[in-house]
């Protein structure tokens, strides 16, 4: 008995998208609600869409792009006479990157954008990177040297870029087309042909200049205004712990690293709506980090003042708690909620734990130098702060605070000291050390927690 032969299964017919069969009038109405950047995407869906969206002399095409521009880019004015809506907007969408190689294309869901390497050359009606410009353009010097054209007269109507002390730059394909056209012009018609082309070139240059005037910058390039508006919105949204005004909060938001990076940059960065949302979140997080840092410093300063108040009743400057306070784990990370500043009872209960931790640090053979010594404050990078006193003058009640360089200079000039011995000649002011290390006088701490010196 032979094997049963399986009958070939018939494949289901391919489904065709019914959307491509919609009438042109309906398509135009639908596209009124489509952003320009999505209209560009639609041009590669099928030939029909491409024709409707890029037809050079189609009133419906102009209506589609015009309606989309008005709805989604209201800041963009209508194109000058001589350039179509679709061409004008397509070049304007610089976030699409170089139209030839795609360089500089902005990922709409990516990280915050970096510098855009593309530029709009209105005279050539292209948007491209520098590499593609070099590959697709030719200078007048190259044309003459390589003899790429039959007669220089064909350049009469060819658009060009001209810079000071540099040869004119032409678009290669336009030069080639002009050369072919000029070759077909009859000798008796050359003069009229050149005059006509010169007139067209004048109009072309005028249109390009109008485009540059209308668009001195891409709307994404005037990011400073948008950045300011984002900060203004955030100023009323972020926590306000010290009862500051919205303006004061806004000033502090502007000090966030990400804001300063983008606001002070002269490079072109392209923001989509997603990027603006991400930017807002980053600034919000940076602001909260600053709040937490300020809260930590405020708690640490309260602990420091508590220890300072116990000198010299309970402790001396030679006690481990005083010398190694800044390195104690419970000081670095206090056991309190960030936004609950400790009261006297909580601080008093914490002192024994800090004293025990300080003794453990002091007992280690390898330890940080005491913060009451010159090497200790140098380790904290406080040499430039005025926290030092001359020990020789202190005995005569001259207690002027100096930085390390100043106190050394004072010892050399006033006391004639040739070899400075820090331990026996320089005093470190403990209270000023704490204030400077904990940045008690910085604008950040003052912003979130008004100074209430005890």
Automatic annotation (TrEMBL):
It comes from the Eukaryota. PROSITE patterns: FBOX. SUPFAM superfamilies: F-box domain. Residues 16-68 form the F-box domain. InterPro entries: F-box-like_dom_sf, F-box_dom. This is F-box domain-containing protein.
């Amino acid at each position: 008995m032979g094997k049963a032969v399986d009958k070939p299964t018939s494949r289901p017919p391919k489904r065709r998208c019914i959307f491509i069969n919609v009438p042109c009038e309906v398509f135009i109405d639908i596209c009124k609600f489509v952003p320009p950047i999505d209209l560009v995407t639609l041009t590669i869906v099928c030939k029909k869409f491409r024709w409707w969206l890029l037809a050079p002399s189609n009133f419906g095409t102009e209506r589609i792009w015009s309606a989309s521009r008005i709805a989604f880019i209201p800041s963009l004015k209508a194109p000058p006479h001589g350039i179509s809506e679709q061409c004008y907007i397509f070049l304007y969408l610089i976030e699409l990157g170089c139209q030839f190689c795609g360089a500089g294309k902005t990922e709409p869901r990516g990280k915050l954008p970096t510098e855009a390497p593309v530029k709009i050359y209105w005279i050539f009606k292209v948007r491209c990177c520098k590499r593609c410009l070099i590959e697709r353009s030719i200078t007048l010097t190259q044309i003459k040297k390589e003899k790429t054209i039959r007669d220089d007269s064909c350049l009469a109507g060819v658009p060009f870029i001209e810079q000071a002390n540099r040869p004119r730059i032409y678009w290669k394909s336009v030069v080639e087309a002009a050369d072919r056209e000029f070759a077909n012009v009859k000798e008796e018609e050359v003069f009229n042909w050149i005059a006509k082309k010169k007139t067209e070139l004048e109009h072309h240059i005028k249109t390009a200049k109008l485009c540059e005037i209308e668009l001195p910058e891409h709307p994404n390039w005037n990011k400073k205004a948008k950045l300011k508006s984002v900060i203004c919105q955030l100023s009323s949204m972020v926590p306000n712990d010290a009862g500051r005004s919205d303006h004061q909060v806004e000033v502090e938001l502007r000090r966030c690293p990400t804001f300063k990076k983008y606001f002070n940059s002269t490079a072109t960065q392209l923001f989509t709506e997603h990027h603006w949302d991400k930017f807002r979140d980053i600034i919000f997080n940076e602001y909260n980090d600053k709040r937490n840092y300020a809260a930590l410093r405020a708690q640490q300063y309260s602990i420091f003042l508590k220890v300072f108040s116990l000198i010299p009743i309970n402790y001396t400057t030679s006690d481990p708690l005083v010398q190694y306070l800044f390195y104690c784990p419970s000081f670095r990370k206090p056991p309190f909620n960030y936004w609950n500043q400790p009261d006297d009872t909580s601080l008093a209960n914490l002192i024994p734990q800090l004293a025990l931790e300080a003794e453990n640090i002091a007992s280690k053979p390898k330890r940080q130098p005491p913060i009451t010594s010159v090497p200790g404050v140098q380790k904290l990078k406080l040499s430039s702060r005025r926290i030092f006193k001359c020990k020789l003058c202190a005995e005569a009640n001259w207690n002027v605070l100096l930085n390390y360089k100043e106190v050394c200079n004072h010892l050399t000039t006033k006391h004639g000291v040739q070899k400075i011995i820090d331990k026996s000649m320089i005093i470190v002011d403990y209270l000023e050390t704490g204030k400077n290390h904990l940045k008690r006088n910085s604008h950040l701490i003052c912003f979130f927690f008004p100074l209430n010196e005890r």
